[in-house]
Specification:
63% of the residues lie in helices and 0% in strands. The chain is mainly α. The chain has one domain. The termini are far apart.
Length: 167
């Protein structure tokens, strides 16, 4: 969730740095629901809807990346999985997602706007493997570290017993 909020924060900051309204990219993200009206409406329900859609998308990406992180998690494995996953999603979004949202969405979600957002998101996912593991242990889905093997049985000394117990 923190990574998704960082990505949304970057999108708002980048809009301000380029002289646009901070909510402009959030409005464009709501284009599948509001159509061409997103370009003329200001801060409002379309902004909230677009930000929510982006937040849900990044959160789902985080859930998938958490599931793909190998167990036991090491920081470099988590970083590798998260950065590779976010960069793959970045490329796929540039190629197919933004044009599918709206024909002009690609001009709002350019690489300088979205690549840092994806990198921030990927860097925040370093701890994701440990969090996923903690949740699995808490809910009984996984016991890590694995249970230790039972102690080896020691051999009993051989004692000569009398053949007749009454002797």
């Amino acid at each position: 969730m923190v990574g998704a909020l960082l990505a949304l924060g970057w999108l708002a900051l980048y809009s301000r740095l380029t002289g646009e309204f901070w909510w402009s990219r959030f409005n464009v993200a709501a284009a599948p629901l509001f159509g061409n009206r997103v370009f003329t409406v200001g801060l409002g329900f379309a902004t909230l809807t677009g930000a929510s859609l982006l937040l849900i998308g990044f959160s789902l990406l985080g859930a998938v990346l958490g599931r793909l992180t190998p167990v036991p998690p090491r920081w470099y494995r988590s970083l590798g999985v998260s950065m590779l996953g976010t960069l793959i999603v970045f490329v796929l979004a540039q190629r197919w997602l933004w044009p599918a949202i709206h024909p002009f969405a690609r001009s709002y979600f350019t690489a300088p706007a979205t690549l840092p957002a994806h990198i921030l998101f990927g860097l925040s996912m370093v701890r994701l493997g440990r969090r996923y593991l903690a949740l699995m242990v808490a809910f009984g889905g996984l016991s890590w570290p694995p249970p230790s093997p039972p102690p080896a049985q020691t051999a009993l000394p051989i004692v000569d017993l009398p053949s007749d117990p009454l002797e």
